[in-house]
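COMPLEX REQUEST
Ligand: zinc ion
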Amino acid sequence: MEQHHHPVQGLSLGTFREVVSFHFKGQAACGPKVYIQAGLHASELPGLLVAHYLREKLLKEEENGSLVGEVLLIPVSNPVGLDQTLLTYQMGRFDLASGENFNRHFPSLVEEVALKVECELTNTAQENVKIVRRVLSDLISKRETVRAVDSLRNTLLQLSCDADITLDLHCDCESVLHLYTHPSSIDDVMPLAALLGAQATLYALEQGNNCFDEVAASFWAKLQLRLPRFPIPVPTISVAIELRGQLDVSHLLAEQDAERILDFLRVRKVLSSPLSIEMPKASHEPTPLDGTEVLVAQKPGVIVYLQSCGVYLKPGDPVVDVVDPISGQTTRYCSGVEGVLFARQNRRYAMPGMDLAYIAGNSPLGRGSLLSA
Ligand SMILES: [Zn+2]
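STATUS: Structure written out below.
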């Protein structure tokens, strides 16, 4: 294993932060390249602990000679957000300097790459992947950033832009394990959903605002549209893994999740060691992200959930009450779709406009923005 340090630029005087990456390589290094990062939303900690176990386990795989490909692991991908403590609360989702969500606005660089590769591309898809990755990596390395948040995004892009498998470890407020992916990755991602015991897999061509896992796949899909006369595949399986809720941090869960991720790498022939369990069946069919019903608070009050995460709902099933103890009124919110209640708030006071619950319906609802702030 090699360890590399990537200083974050654009910081205040007298401060220093860095992204630390761990590189595991098989002797032949002829297999796929896997990129795994945790904590881009820095207050989502289950992934950091999973990364801790992944590191231990990958070291053993490397020592045993069962690593065929290459794995790049970043246990703490957002040291800027991890250090944002405000009035005793850790604020790791938004960059306090700019107000931007750390997991938005990743540059996709489609046009810049298209202009440079147009005269080089061939009739062979695999050859084109190599050419595009070389040009993309070169462009990213030459990008000049000013703000820390952009420096961080650029570093993560640089490290991941040639990965065949990209796993971005997140979590929700309170939730069951679920996945976000690009339509091009669905078939390849469902074995991962099955191994992890995910209860929903949500897919979208564009989730909105260029989040990390979206850009990894949509870059290729957009390049394909921009240069239709050349064969350009989507060579990256890109997925965000929502490792349950923010408080679901335990040795037991993290160790199991790490082992299941390694099992997925065994399925993908990144590791030659045998699966640790018999391959399970996925509990669900993937659903469009646009089919997700979001129950939104219309009035302020105390949130009282009537259903636990993981419950399968039918239209009309009551999900949550918001109680106003001054007027004595209770506003009840019911499911409008059939599907699993996969996430809900971890706070219990609602302001008007707050998302209360997410239900994975299977018919597109025609919503605008598909991700929460
Ligand atoms: Zn997140």
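REMARKS: The CA atoms of residues 41 and 351 lie 23 Å apart. Residues 41, 44, 103, 170 surround zinc ion (CB under 6 Å).
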